[in-house]
Structures are given as C-alpha cells and as structure tokens.
Amino acid sequence: MFESAEIGHRIAKKEYREREPVLRAALLNAQYALLEQAKAPVIILINGADGAGKGETGNLFNEWMDPRHIHTEAFDAVDPDHAGRPEMWRYWQALPQKGHIGILFGSWYSDPILAHVMGHEKKARFTQRLERIRHFERMLSAEGAVLLKFWFHLSRSAARTRFKALEKDPKNAWRVTKDDWVRLQHYEEFVTVCSQALRKTSTAEAPWRVIEGADPAYRALTAGDQLLEALQTAVQANADARARPTVQRAAAAPVPSSASGLLASFDYSRKLSRKHYEAELAQLQSRLAVLSRDARMASHALVLVFEGMDAAGKGSTLRRITQALDARHYRVVPIAAPTDEERAQPYLWRFWRQLPGHGHTTVFDRSWYGRVLVERVEGFCSEADWMRGYDEINTFEEEQVRAGTILLKFWMAITADEQLRRFNERKATPYKQFKITDDDWRNREKWPAYEHAVADMIDRTSTDVTPWHVVASDDKLFSRIAVLRQVCESVEQALTVRKKKGRA
Q1: Could you state, in order of their start, the residue ranges of all structural domains in the chain?
Q2: pLDDT band for position 172 (50/70/90)?
Q3: Which pLDDT does position 174 carry in this prediction?
C-alpha cells in the first residue's frame, strides 16, 4: 500500500510560496460553501508513522481555514469516562455536524493497529475490528458524510533522523517520547500491519490517501490539494442534488391485514387479578432492586427499549421498572422527533450519545427503531434509508452487547379495539387528556401499514444476540408483570454467565 507514496519527492521553497496562498484561498472558499449548504460533514482522518507530520498537517488545516467551523480531536488510550461503553462510542461523540469539518487524529484505526503490532491482540480479533470499521464507514458515507483518510508515511531511517533532530531542539524535544522510540523498534511489524489495515479498509467510498511525510512542503501541498478536491466535490454534489426536481412522496398505502399475522398470533386474552398482580409486582420489584445493586453489575450496563402502538402501556410499564432502581444510576430517554442538532448528524448519533456506562441503566421510551417504523410509514426517509436501517441497527446492538450491555427490547402489542377504548377513556378523563393528540388519531388510521412495518422489523432485527420480546398488552396488569419478569430473568442470566466465565 505504501508503494503509492512518492518517496523522496520534494517541493522547492519558491514553488511552495507561490502555491500556498492560492490553495489557502480556495480552501477557505470551499469551506464556506460547504458550511452554507449544511448538507454534509467532511471527516478528515489523520494517521500514519510517528514523526511523519500528522500534527503539523492538522495545524495547517486549522490555519488555512476558519477554525471556528472545524472540530479537532485526538484519540489516545481509552480513559475511565469511555470505559464500559462500546468501542465506537467515543468516536461517535466527535463526529462533526453537517456543513462542518472534523479532524480526527488516530481515530478508530490507532487502537486496533497498535494492539496487533504490540502483540496484544491476535490476527482474528484484528480482522474483526477492521470489518466493523468498514461497516461504520459505509454507514457514514450512506448518511452523506465525506471521508478523507490520510496516511502519512515515513521510512525507518527518516523517522530516526527526525526524532534525533527534534530531541536536539529545546523547543521541540517534548514531541519525542519513549513510546515513539519503542514503536520505532517495531517498525517492520508496524509497516506490515498498517499495510494490511489500509488494504482491507480502502474502499470506493472511503479510500486511503498515502502521502510521503519527509518533506514538509510536499506533504502540506499534497494534503491540501486533496482536501480541496474533496470539499469541492462535496459542494458540487450537494448543489446537483438541490437542482434535481423534488419527487413528492406518496403516503404509505394500506396493506392487507394478513401482513400482521405475526402480531395477531399472540394471546391477548390473558389477564391478572389485582390481588395476584400486586403480590407479583412487589416480589419482582424487590428482585430487580437486588439485581440492579449486585456488585457484578459493575461489569454491565442495562439498556431497555420500549416500542409499541400508541396507548399500549409503555409509560406505565417502565415506571414500574424504575420504581425498583436507584435514581442515581438510571435515566429514562423519551424519543421524539429529532432536533435541528440531531438532524445535522448521522441517524444513530443521538442514540449513541445516550448509551450508559457499566453500572448504569438507560430506558428508551421509543428508540432507534423509528427509522424502520415512523420514518418508513410516514415517508420521512427514503426506502434505501430504512432498508439499510435493519443492518445498521443490528450492528449497533451487537456492539452494545459486545461491550457488556444487557439489552432488552420489548414490543408492547395491543389490539385495535383495546386501543380505541383507551383513546376514548383518555379523551373523557381530564387528567389523562394530555396523553391523547391529533397525531395519535392520525396514526391509528395507518394501523395496517404500521402492523406491516412491525412484522418486518421483528423478522429482521430479532437476532440471537438481541431478540424481541413481544408482550400482549390488552391487560396492563399482565403485561407489566411479564416485562418485569423478563428483565429479572435476563439480568440474572447475564450475571450468572459472567460469574461462570470468571471462574473459568
């Protein structure tokens, strides 16, 4: 892969002085055009050999353009604030919003490469992490992000010469660390592993751009030219998209009721007496209270997802759960229409930022499934968006589980007749009237379309890792107990598995 770098290429000072101001002006104009459109972010990944000019390049980009609209982030070892969350969590926090530029030093490549080079991880694990990176970058590209991946190359001898020169300069000696020298001793392994990583992750939507870093002038102008090309391409693509005539989306057509066969197959007649309910509720809440405070939960997070038709009892059920939890260690996140800030990011961004660390619980009242439910049925996104949403959601949930999260998904199922009864009850009861809105009645008219979307959702996202738990909720007492029991059993199972692994 490094053969593409022009080894030994240099640019004379005169040429640099002539080209640099022209390039700066063009970059600034392209940056402002991107900002004005506010349609796509540009994400610049800066990786490469120690001493190859990564920091200098990032500083130049901030100097040549308006730094107010550039977010620069450097990633080191995982700190305590990030521990206990999925591997990609901290990178999601650093993504720039649409119209802005993000410069990420190290990014999601540094840790897997260094771990493999230093012998901390085997090749199989390294390959798995690269596959997850490819999936992540495909998702970013599909969401409209422009990925510009720079790899700055430096030969071993050039790196050694640069380190020695920096150490002799009192103003720059701090830039060379013991770790730099240690990594230099593993230079051949480093080059081999990096070459493998670049080949496996250089894709059509996010190719690697390898730049020889020995000559500062060549490095700066080459990187600047490639950044300018990426910015201008993004601006032109956004302009072309805006110029195309808008196609009016048709409202979702009703689908035959047979599409809802999955939900119709559940037994909605099951009930609990008030006496039986109260006895079970006290026992299960006590059981959950003990489990949530178990010392082994320090190695787990708990995420509960509640979805269902309007008036299916989601709110009353999650309240029975939170009554058993310590308010200092849980959060309830109600999901509504995205804000302007959230619309400026990839779809899953607002959910990634809400994920709990180990020892904590997050309850989602509606969730990331809006993409394949509300957005699909209401035509808020394209068919291509919600179709790829299934795979993105499955990957998102697998990453949570891999990080130690106990993830439970509940679909609160209700019949159309029972929903109508509850709607009318809310309308007639003054203190419940706030629960019923015009949108609820409008959504009810699209019941067949929603049932069809739900059936597809369960079929495509109920996996061995994160299965759906469908709870027939015509009787709220029964459904609350069913959910509480499932939560307790799943947490107990996760803690037991953890204990067995620890003994092994």
Answers
A1: 2-243, 257-503
A2: confident
A3: 82
- Residue 256: is its pLDDT beyond 70? no
- 13 or 499, which is more confident? 13
What's the CA gap between 502 and 504, in Å, rounded? Answer: 5
CATH number for 2-243 (one of 3.40.50.2000, 3.30.450.70, 3.40.50.300, 3.40.30.120): it is 3.40.50.300
Residues in Cβ contact with 119 at an 8 Å cutoff, skipping those fewer than 6 apart: none
Whose structure tokens read 């990032």?
Answer: 58
**Helix H or strand E encompassing 318:** helix 314-322
pLDDT of residue 259: 40
DSSP state of 333: E
Q: Structure tokens of 173?
A: 């000696």
pLDDT of residue 170: 84
How much is the mean pLDDT over the chain?
Answer: 91
**pLDDT of 111 strictly over 50:** yes
Query: Which of 442, 436, 438, 312 has its CA nearest to residue 377?
Result: 442
| C-beta neighbour count of 4 within 10 angstroms | 14
| Residue 1 per-residue DSSP state | -
128, with CB counted inside 10 A (0-12, 13-18, 19+), is middle
CATH of domain 257-503: 3.40.50.300
